[in-house]
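Take a specimen:
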Amino acid sequence: MKTAIKTTLMALSLLTSLTSFAKVADFNTIIEENTKAQASLHTSLKDNLELARMAVQRESQEKYIVDRASDGINVPTNKGFLKFAKEKSSYRASESVQQKRLAQELSEAE
């Protein structure tokens, strides 16, 4: 009986060592496949990066000439927008308006 138990234990230990070796071999193939996939990914990424760099260089080398055929662009603008703050606060009426006002005040005073 003891010999039968010893032989079964020997057979089990032999089987476990063989299955572990098979797992290690599978693990090594997985690592090799992963390394190959990383290398192909790296080369494709490098090619894509080079294409992008070439496209950017082509765009930066293109030059555009802008024609100044017109003197300017007319846009409606508020007159108050073009004045300084001091000009807005110290507004003076024109000379003719001041003379009319003075004449009106003198006529009202008589």
Remarks:
- The chain has three helices and no strands.
- The helical segments are 2-61, 85-89, 95-109.
- The mean pLDDT is 77.
